[in-house]
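Sorry to interrupt, but I need a hand with the structure work. Could you add the entry underneath, on a fresh line?
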Amino acid sequence: MSPQPPSDSRPPLTPVELFLLGRTLMKIGEESLPEPAVGGGQFRGGTRAILVVLSDIHAHDNTSVGAIASRTGLPQSQVSGAVARLKETGSIRTAPDPADGRRQLIQQADEVSERVAEVRRSDITQALTTALGSDDPAALREVTEALGVLARHLTPESVSRLRP
């Protein structure tokens, strides 16, 4: 006879529950990000694409818009827009491709831009507290610790293992 799980344990998440949790976490993350000074708030709504593109550039330096679109599944127009915004904030730089002068290669900036530094200094506590609907320190600590575990095991590189 196999041991029974404790009565308070939940069955594993379904794919739909996992998807919805991921969407909720993305919204909390987006809410935590400070608005950029450049563009007066025009970046809202494009935040997800910008973060996906920047993450891809960090994993694949000297890349192109087409290659990023292929790896991320984002439309090429959305990647181009994200690249333009990242370049405007100094987060990346571009250079002509020596093999094809019509194409630009995208690279990480040599130094951390002010925008990247601002984002790195931002904190999730307020958005997480709002999403929880409670300022209970025990609940906040529990969720923050759980997010830390997930972040250690499910890194941005994890997504590349899902795509052939």
Observations:
- The chain has a mean pLDDT of 86.
- The longest strand covers residues 100-108.
- The two ends are 40 Å apart (CA to CA).
